[in-house]
Amino acid sequence: MNYFPDEVIEHIFEYVGSHRDRNALSLVCRSWYRIERCTREKVFIGNCYSITPERLIQRFPSLKSLTLKGKPHFADFSLVPHGWGGFVYPWIEALAKGKVGLEELRLKRMVVSDESLELLSRAFPNFKSLVLVSCEEFTTDGLAAIAANCKRLRELDLQENEVDDHKGQWLSCFPDSCTSLVSLNFACLKGEINTGVLERLVARSPNLKSLRLNRSVPLDALQRIVARAPQLVDLGVGSLVHDPAMETFAKLMTTMNKCKSITSLSGFLEVTPRCLTAMYPILPKLTSLNLSYAAGIPGSDLIKLIRHCKKLQRLWIMDSIGDKGLGVVANTCKELQELRVFPSDNIGQHAAVTEKGLVAISMGCPKLHSLLYFCHQMTNAALITVAKNCPNFIRFRLAILDATKPDPDTNQPLDEGFGAIVQSCRRLRRLSLSGQLTDKVFLYIGMYAEQLEMLSIAFAGESDKGMLYVLNGCKKLRKLEIRDCPFGNTALLTDVGKYETMRSLWMSSCEVTVGACKVLAMKMPRLNVEIFNENEPADCEPDDVQKVEKMYLYRTLAGKRKDAPEYVWTL
Amino acid sequence: MEEMVMGTLDLITASPHSSSSSSSSPTTDNNNNNNHPSSSSSISTRRTDLSTDLRLGLSLSPSHYSTPSSREQRSSFDWPPVKSTLRCTLVEKSQISHFVKVYMEGIPIGRKLNLLAHHNYHALVKALANMFRTTILCPNSHQLPLISGNNVHVLTYEDQEGDWMMVGDVPWEMFLTSVKKLKITRADRC
Is A41-180 CATH 3.40.50? Predict the structure, then answer.
């Protein structure tokens, strides 16, 4: 390959897309490193503090698309205090200064201020796509800037962000000349929008394929909007609530009948269940259905709906569907690949889903490879059956609502069940454990989970041995997050070199002490070891023997960060 | 029902966060939490205590969600691992509903309305005006009716003692605990 001119190698590299493959290419030899770095357009940075923006820009002059992740995963569950970090502004500032031709920015769990959105909207004339997932701090003012200034905007995708809705007219800020929208998702916004403005925007966006509305769009406006976009592929209905005028409802049904391309449906934040019949025309073609926010749909209506969805590949649903409903899913959705069952709040009602539903799914859906399952109980026997029926799991996440519940039939911990999962599913990359668990489950994981990259543990284990089995055994481990487990200093310090092979480690409410963290930080200068000291005053040096409430460590080439709040000690 | 509603009132007066929810907090725009906490009392056990209990195998079952009413007040209890956006949606749905019958004068068939879906008198009047397609005078406006016709109405309610009263004189929370039925009567009758 060294005898090919650079142009040929460049051309070959064009076919190599994935980040991992690209990273591998750059390690082969110096000339490949050089060619690769000059031609790389898309970069993925899993931890925004692992590298400085300047270094990124220096290495990849052709950068067009950047993905950044900020806060650790457990921030989703309120375990990371406010103000920890993950600010995107310095990145945007550096990219602007470096005159990067940025076209696409995807952020997850980052702090995005309106100032950063404004700068983003002005600094990159070719900017096309903004995707914000689980971010915070921005308001509709920032969105207004994006709408007004990004002349080539194709995608504005807001997923599960905390947005202060100033009820301004941000949608009106899209100029009449903006006709390039392909994807618009504002389902997470809480405020009212001007439906007339939205309708006109949709009417002048012939390429619009994905539209997800928030709950403020009433049924009649929904009908008019969808009527303007029969080419839609992905629809998010914010609100489907009874309109006293029955003709509107009939109109909506006719409109849905004309939408021959919709394969993805989501939303229903507000819903009158009998209005769901309006959606029936599109159900048979759906490959993706997300009802995880549709708390207003009772189980019986969910079941009725599912019977029409024979082509589903991805289903996100609430546990109000029940074990019986999951049985219907198993009989109907033979193409199912990904299933997520979320807990609904059933005060005083019977247990929503149990191991029975999962077993039914495993029997009926052979293609299943991704699972997130919140349930009231799980048994070893069920997990063993599931492991046998579905050896193709890539992601397996179980969350039992009673976090340390043993197998209710045998009163045993769930070690054997999860052991069966890791032994059978050789391609498992992500695993979340739940229920009563001893060190044994970690022995199994260390022994069998060879491809495991991410492991989430809560209220499990008996001793340091548990954590050590995992650290020693899982060679491909990248992210380990642990809360409320009896793992301590020995587990933390036995193999310090391991952490440089990983992206990050989170430990909270465990048995690790300040002293041990200090030792670790001293031995590994290329790790940032942060401990969070929420309850102590900022200038009070904690005792070495004191237990650490929360610790987050990650490998980095950027050194100690300068934007940490007072309660974060980087050792 | 009466007890549950009275219980709610107790929770309202006892709660230190009662009516001053910050309007800029993104999680409380439609969130009734501060005024109507769920009667299935949210578990706000300190996480450290609970984790000790769990380790002792007491297998407490935290089957109800804690109710974060604003960013600052986020509860420290965070199992099951559910994103805050979903948690807020569920908290809204879990609130007690308080459906009352609503009649409009001259129409024999009544409707039913969930009072807890509204935050104040203004919202209630707006919803009813929409439901019954008429003009209802807002209770606290001191205007005299400009149209003395038969398409302007006022809102009245039957209280726990069986008396028919004009809606709007007492604070919203107090109204919620005393209302049994609603009636939309012609303005020129009052």
Answer: no
